[in-house]
Amino acid sequence: MAANPSDPRLSASEVYELHKAAVTRDYVAKPRLDYRTVAGVNGPLVILDSVKVRRTRAIRNLFHHIWGTKRTQRVLLEDTFPKFSEIVELTLPDGSKRAGQVLEVQGKRAIVQVFKGTSGIDAKQTHVEFTGDTLKIPVSEDMLGRIFNGSGKSIDKGPKVFADDFLDINGESKGQAVGSPINPYSRIYPEEMIQTGISAIDTMNSIARGQKIPIFSAAGLPHNEIAAQICRQAGLVQKIGINKGVLDGHEDNFSIVFAAMGVSILGIFSKFGRSRRGRVNMETARFFKQDFEENGSLERVTLFLNLANDPTIERIITPRLALTTAEYYAYQLEKHVLVILTDMSSYADALREVSAAREEVPGRRGYPGYMYTDLSTIYERAGRVEGRNGSITQIPILTMPNDGNVVNYEIRGDITHPIPDLTGYITEGQIFVDRQLHNRQIYPPINVLPSLSRLMKSAIGEGMTRKDHGDVSNQLYAKYAIGKDAAAMKAVVGEEALNQEDKLSLEFLEKFERTFIAQGKFSALWILDTECCF
Question: Domain named ATP synthase A/B type C-terminal: which ranges (predicted)?
Answer without folding.
Answer: 459-524
